[in-house]
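can u do me a favor
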């Protein structure tokens, strides 16, 4: 793919994520001035959040809209942006990936899922996947649709962080659910995301 086409493809996913975040937070006063898509080629996170938006939705976003993705390399890049000195404290890395004719997927650390986002326990068919460097990620996505509502876990050789993968539209719904209950915290109120590191995906 030509570089110009690749950038346009990446920009489309960034703009999709930007619009979804604005739509989920607009009832709290968040506008397009608070959530912006980073210019292609610039370093750092792909979605720029104002202080007000980051307090409500504290994620450092990396977007990958490619036909073939090295999931581990993308997660390392996301973690690198998350640990930059200028990054706000209390944020969480979030990878959003897609490809042609596929719905965007979100990938977040499993301990964050367990402590902040989990809506229901994983079923018996949703055991941890010991995923290696070479894996057919989209085949796992397809299989998860019939076994676990589009959700599954990744854990590289059982070492380091485990991750939960789920459809992005479900992630945005879950990650903003606390803002829709009884008025919820809105502009100016901080939403903490820190919590104990419990068993990833429900597994000890």
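np, heres the sequence
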């Amino acid at each position: 793919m030509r570089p110009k086409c690749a950038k346009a493809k990446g920009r489309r996913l960034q703009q999709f994520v930007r619009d979804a975040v604005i739509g989920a937070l607009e009832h709290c006063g968040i506008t397009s001035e608070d959530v912006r898509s980073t210019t292609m080629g610039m370093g750092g996170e792909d979605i720029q959040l104002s202080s007000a938006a980051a307090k409500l939705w504290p994620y450092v976003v990396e977007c990958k809209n490619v036909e073939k993705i090295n999931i581990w390399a993308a997660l390392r890049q996301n973690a690198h942006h998350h640990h930059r000195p200028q990054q706000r404290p209390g944020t969480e890395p979030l990878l959003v990936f897609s490809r042609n004719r596929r719905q965007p997927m979100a990938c977040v650390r499993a301990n964050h899922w367990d402590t902040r986002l989990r809506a229901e326990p994983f079923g018996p068919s949703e055991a941890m996947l010991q995923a290696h460097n070479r894996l057919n990620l989209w085949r796992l996505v397809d299989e998860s649709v019939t076994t676990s509502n589009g959700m599954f876990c990744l854990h590289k050789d059982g070492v380091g962080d485990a991750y939960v993968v789920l459809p992005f539209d479900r992630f945005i719904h879950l990650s903003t659910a606390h803002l829709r209950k009884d008025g919820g915290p809105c502009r100016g109120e901080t939403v903490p995301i820190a919590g104990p590191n419990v068993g990833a995906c429900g597994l000890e």
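The chain has one domain: 3-187. hope that helps!!
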